[in-house]
Amino acid sequence: MSSSSRDDTGSLPDLGSIVRYHRKTAKLTQENLARLAGVGTTVVREIEKGKRTVRLTTLLRVTGALSIRLEWTSPLREAYEYEKEVARAEGTSTGPR
Fold it and tell me: Which domains are delineated in the chain?
C-alpha cells in the first residue's frame, strides 16, 4: 500500500497513511478505531503499516468507521449495469453473462 508498491494495475494509493491521517484527525487511538469498526487492534496497525493481505470486508469496516468512501471503477461498469438490468427485467436470476 505504500506509494512505491505496485501490482498489475499500476501504483496503489497509500491507503495506510490515509487511514492513519483520518484516525488521528478524528482524535482516535488505534484501539478506539478498532472498537468502532468491530475489528482487532492488530488489523488497524497492519492497515496503517501498509499490509497488502488484509481482507476486503475488514478494510471496508475500518474505512467505513472513518467515513472514508472507496470507489470501484471499471471501463465496463455501464455495460455490466445495463446487462444486469436486462437480466432482472427478463427474470433471469443469473445476471450478466
Answer: 6-66 (1.10.260.40), 71-97 (no CATH)
